[in-house]
Amino acid sequence: MNPGETLLSTSRTFQLWRYGVGHSELFLRSGFRPQSEPVELYFEGVRSMHFDDLDFPELTVWRDEDVTVENDTARFHRLRIELRSPKHTGVVVSSTLTYIDGTGQMKWTVTAPGGEEIGDGARPTCE
What we know:
Number of strands: 12
Largest sheet: 6 strands, antiparallel
Low-confidence stretches: none
Shape: elongated
Oligomer: single chain
Number of helices: 0
Mean pLDDT: 87
C-alpha cells in the first residue's frame, strides 16, 4: 500500500506512559530533559502491540507497510508502526499516530487509509 518511511528520529528516550483498553489509546512519552518539556506519541484505535521492553532509547519511528484486516462485510486498513531503538524494536498497529510537542500542541498526525465495504448479496439475519 505505502512504502516505508521514517516519521521521527530522536536521541530522546521514550517509554510506555499509558494504555487505555476502553478507548484503545496508547501514549509513549519522552522523559524530561533540561530546559525542555516531554513530548508524546499518541496512538488511537490500537489493534495490537508488541514490546520486548517498555523503554525506547534513541527512538526511530518507522511507518511500515499498512496492515489490512478483513471480515465478511468490510476491509479496514491500519498503520503498522515500528518503534526502533538500538536494543529492540516494538510494533504498534493502530488507525492513527499523533506527535504532541512539549507545549501540548499536536504537531503532526498520520492516519491509515479509509476502509471499504466488500462482499455481495444479502447479509445474514437472525430469526
